[in-house]
Fold:
Amino acid sequence: MRINSKQELLPPLSPQPNSASDWIEWLTAPLPGRFMLPATGLLIMGLDWLCFSEEAATLGLAIPLTSLVGFIAGAIGTYHLQRKYGLDSRPIAWLKSLFAGVLVGMPLPLGGTLLGAWILTQSGVMSLKDRLWKDRLARKQQRN
Structure:
């Protein structure tokens, strides 16, 4: 490669690409040490918050319906994600989907429980925080 004497070589903006496809790949890429995909962990937590955040407004009367909807949505979503992106076999994906469906269908808040923390750490969602902080610090260092 011929370098012109008047050409200034600039360092890359960040050590990691920050495009949307990289985030999607991180959410759906299976890794050997993960029990579930990060996308599956986000699905479970999101459905739990969506289904049971309004229970105070209905005075608990909608619990049977939201539990059933949460179970079905959690099971179908987990099965789809684990089969398509996690590359799990049918029996393994079915067991994970049953597990996720039961977790989402329970009318207890998962976000503040040990079980919720286990889902977040096992699926890799907790590393998302580290990744975001690393990106933020890299941008801050570039400005200085």
Summary: The helical segments are 20-28, 38-52, 63-84, 90-105, 114-123, 126-143. The two ends are 31 Å apart (CA to CA). Residues 36-143 form one domain. The chain has six helices and no strands.
